[in-house]
Automatic annotation (TrEMBL):
It comes from the Bacteria. NCBIfam families: rSAM_PA0069. Gene3D superfamilies: 3.80.30.30. This is PA0069 family radical SAM protein. InterPro entries: Elp3/MiaA/NifB-like_rSAM (IPR006638), MJ0683-like (IPR040086), rSAM (IPR007197), rSAM_sf (IPR058240). SUPFAM superfamilies: Radical SAM enzymes (SSF102114). It comes from Comamonas resistens. Signal peptide: none annotated. Keywords: Iron, Iron-sulfur, Metal-binding.
Amino acid sequence: MNKARTHLDSGVRPVTIIKGRGSASQIAHRFAGDDRQAFDDGWSADADAQEATALRTSVEWEQCKSALSRHGSPDLPFHLGLNPYRGCEHGCIYCYARPTHSYLGYSPGLDFETRLIAKQNLPEVLRAELSRPGHQPGVVMLGSVTDCYQPVERELGLTRRVIEVLAQAHHPFSIVTKGSGVERDLDLLAPLAQRHLVAVYVTLTTLQPELARQLEPRAAAPHRRLRMIKTLSEAGIPVGVSLAPQIPFLNDDMEQVLAAAYEAGARQAFYAVLRLPWEVAPLFEQWLQLHYPDRAKRVMERVRDLHGIAEADRAQGKAYSAQFGQRMKGTGIWAEMLAQRFALACRKLGLNRERVQLDCSQYHHSRLSAQQSLF
C-alpha cells in the first residue's frame, strides 16, 4: 500500500501535493513488474523542473474499433455507454475509472490526468454502428467512464460531433459531466430536449470550494456547476444532479447540495458512495495523508464499513466490494443512514417526483443516410 512519505533519511523523495493535480505520484499499475520511486539525489531544483515538464497534459490519438460499450450491471440505469476520451484532466482523486489506464501500460495516478487518449474516428464509427438495421436503441450515457466535457474537448470537439450523429439518428442519450463546456452545445441539446431525446446530469460533489479544489482540481468550481444547472434548465433541458461520490467525514453537505441544485433548476438527483477499486485505494489513501492526515484513518474505516469489508480483509488493505446491489449505495447501518438522509431531503424539496423518460421510438437507422437533415 503506497503512503505519502514524510521522512527524509530514507533517500526517497517525499511525496508532496502537486498544484492542479489530484494524484501526487506515478503509482505503478497492477500489471507492472516493479514499482519505481523518485530518489532524492540532492539536485531538487533540477528534479522539480523536470517533474513540472513531465506533468504537462498530452493527447494521443486512437483509432477505435467500436463506439458503444454495453454492460449488464443491475446497479446502473443504462446499458449503453460512450466515451470520447480515455483518462481525464479533471484529476478527480476518487475516480473509479483510473485503473482503466493500467490496460494501456500507463499509471492510474498522474498518467491518468496527463496522458489522455482521444478517439479520433469515434463519430464515424458511431455512425456506422447506428446505421445497422439490427441496432437496438437504448439510452446512451455520454461520459460513463471519463468526462466527455473535460478541458481538451474545447479544442478537439469530439463530443459535439458525437452529439450531431445521435441527433441525426434521433437516438436518445444522457450526459453526466462536471464540465462547463456542455453549455457550448445548447444549440444541439435544446431542440433534442423538446423531442425527449436528451437529459443532462451535473456532478456536484460538494459546495465547499476548497474541498472541491482538492478533490477535483481541474473541474468547474461548485458555483460554476450550479450556473450550468440553471443555464440548462432555462434552456428547457431536463437536468439532474449527481452527488457522487459520498465520502465519509469529507463532503457531508448532502442536504445543502440538493437544496442548491434544486434552486438552480435540477429536478432529478442520485448519489453513490465512494468506490476504491484496484489502484484507486492506495492513491486515495495517499491523498488523504497529504490533505487530511488528521482524519485519514477514520475516513478509510468508514469506507470499509460502507462496503462491508470483513476484518481479515481489512488487514490486507481491502477497501472496496464490487458486489452487485451494494457497490453503488453501500451496505450496513451507515449506508442506511445515508439513504435515509437522501430520501428525506429529496422528498422535502420535491426532487425525483417524476422520472425523466427519453424516447427510443424515434430512432431509425435510415435517418443516417445522406438524404436526411440533422433534425
